[in-house]
Amino acid sequence: MFNTGTMGFMLLATSLVMLMTPGLAFFYGGLAGKRNILGIMMQSFVSMGITTIMWFVCGYSLCFSGDIAHNSDMLGGIIGNLNKAFMSGVDLNTPFPGNKNIPEFVFFAYQMMFAIITPALITGAFVNRVTFKSYLLFLIVWQVLVYYPFAHMIWGGGLLANWGVLDFAGGIVVHATAGFAALASVIYVGKRRDKESPPNSVPLIAIGTGLLWFGWYGFNAGSALDVNSITGLAFVNTDVAASFAAITWLVIEWSMAKKPKFVGLLTGAVAGLATITPAAGFVSLPAAVMIGIAAGIVCYLAVHLKNKMGWDDALDVWGVHGIGGCLGTILLGVFASKAMNATGADGLMYGGSGFFMKQLVAVVGACIYAFIFTYLMLALINKITPVKVTQTDEDKGIDDAIHGEKAYDEGVL
């Protein structure tokens, strides 16, 4: 009944995307100060547990049950229904409607990995400033009222999909929403008391980047939801854009700081990965090159602007993921070509000015909503439990103050 090759590939892609969350934990853990390593890593790992529970209970259903075409979702195409809550009606032989070569259980698992990593991306912005209780509330509410609606509107047959907006693997759904939620979080919680804390482990950042880059092949190529030429296109575009972005960032920073920075190279690679994500299966290889170069330049400038504005986005979530997701979504509106993917659209370069405007309006609207909602949500959570850690706990470090653990035994050489 099912194609075992396609099913095997999708399970592999699911595993790769799952690996990205530990990779993110390593990446953020290396960038954090030595007193806040475990706190930031735990925020990623706890999402694997909480989000999986939510996804089974209602998340998958709210994202992928119902569609606007059949008037079977809720709120006019903004969010799905609860028909598949607790995976009701889905058994081992239920095919996924979008590709009947795989069972719906596999699609459920694949999309669950996206839901896990998206809120975890935000945590890098407010490292060592947010209490664990408030983060758990944030993790739950943000998914229900930000991630689920945008996943449904774009990937679940909702409002934006019906309008013609495209997002191959998460430029809007994942990176733009998370990036601008991160900026709102930074503005709400304020600056760190010790902003000069250097990364505790550059090798750990490198390991995290390697795992993210490796996992991103499942993130983008797997989003084809099949094994065909589009799968290969997305795979190659992902690697090429990341490579060009990494070298572009390296060259810019080398020219500015007069030294080639390893962390800059790694950050540039992640910026390229985030930027190509919405376009990976819709654009040509030369377009991916240009998207990668643009990512290296624009995301570097965004981080520079963040520093100039005094926004204490500790691990540059807004500049890398937020701006990268926005840039990639807009450039998809420029470079998309039906010659590359017949299920896509023609971008501005091919006469598709209407499609370009749809991409622009959709990503701007998503960023504004994610920013405003996140800020208001944090203010509401603060009335239930304090969002920001005390000065004493911040000075002590959240690893010891909140979790009662330390990443390293400082008494051992």
Main β-sheet, spatial strand arrangement: 1-2
Rg:
20 Å
Mean pLDDT: 96
CATH architecture: Orthogonal Bundle
The CATH class designation is Mainly Alpha
Report the major sheet. Answer: 2 strands, antiparallel
Instruction: Give the ordered list of helices and strands.
Output: HHEEHHHHHHHHHHHH
Q: Determine the number of helices (DSSP H or I, runs of at least 4 residues).
A: 14
Distance between the termini: 58 Å
Secondary structure class reads mainly alpha
| Strand coverage percent | under 5%
Indicate the overall shape: globular
The CATH homologous superfamily is termed Ammonium transporter AmtB like domains
Number of strands: 2
How many structurally independent domains?
1
Uncertain parts: none
Name the helicity range.
Answer: 55-70%
